[in-house]
Model the fold of this input.
Amino acid sequence: MPGSDVTVGADPGLRVDLTKSEDGSAARRRAQGLAQTNTRRMLGWVAGVVVLAAVCMLSIAIGAKDVPFSTVWDALWSYDNSGDHIIVRDLRIPRTILGLIVGVALGIGGALIQAITRNPLADPGILGVNAGAAFAVALAVGVFGMASIWSYIWFAFAGAVVVMVFVYALGSIGRGGATPIRLTLAGVAIGAVLTGITSGLILLDPEAFDQMRFWNAGSIAGRGLEVSGAVAPFVVVGLVLAFVIARPLNAVAMGDDLARSLGANVARTRVIGVIAVTLLCGAATAAAGPISFLGLMVPHVARWIVGPDQRWILAYTLVGGPIVLLLSDVIGRVIIRPGEMQVGIVTAFVGAPVLIFLVRRGKASGL
Done:
């Protein structure tokens, strides 16, 4: 009616209906956007698996003596004890399998360390894993006279585990428990002390230096399937623990107080994460020696591709770690033919420039 104050826009019921409709449309758009994002992530992960399969074939075929892909296929399915088949079955395949295991372990371990400590520049060595393993190997070689990788692999693993437990215990002292800063400081301090002692042991015993130098450079060459079989169970358990805490890690990465307000058990998540890192990185370091930059670089690349969701970071790192390690190993085989460069040296050369590029371009997002 003319002069009336009542308008269509003033109807409370209609306003509520319009608000509900807008909220429903926004929710549907968010759901559709999330579904599209997850689809893209899944397609990217599948593409990564395909790339990993191709890299595995390269790792088997390329070396001091290249083997044609057709011969590789025959060696896998029609073994005839020829020279090329022996190279493929007895040397290249065990090396590639160990590269897969070590790459997965170091990549996932690096992602966990960065999430637990909320430090995007953290890697497995920051908690003393590498230093503990190296110290134990120096003892095994210099004191107990062990000479083969199989004999001191268990010393390396035990050293990594013991040091990790000690770091966590030291970081837990005081009010507030094991905070990221305390864990980092404890790991760096203990790692520095053990590195100094290890250097002293090596200088006092030149024979120990000769035994350790190739292990200390980081290499997957010359390890049989028995080494992969020995460390694989520890890596599998570490992977299971890592993916069990993938969702709580998203909350922990935002800060302890906010994580608790979201219902996450921060202490339990951090303890499980430290156990997983110990198993993964201890096994990898024991088998291949300390390999730098891989655990630091691969999670950065994964985070750049998929964002801050720890579940997808772990999934992409699961594939990206062995890709980087095996490619680095292939490069090390061909760059100084007929000799070889240890994979730990190559990852440092490859990883440092890539990481600097990502950081300078601002594409390596923070946690």
Observations:
- The first helix runs from residue 12 to 61.
- Residues 67-361 form a domain with the ABC transporter involved in vitamin B12 uptake, BtuC fold (CATH 1.10.3470.10).
- The chain is about 75% helix and 0% strand.
- The chain has one domain: 67-361.
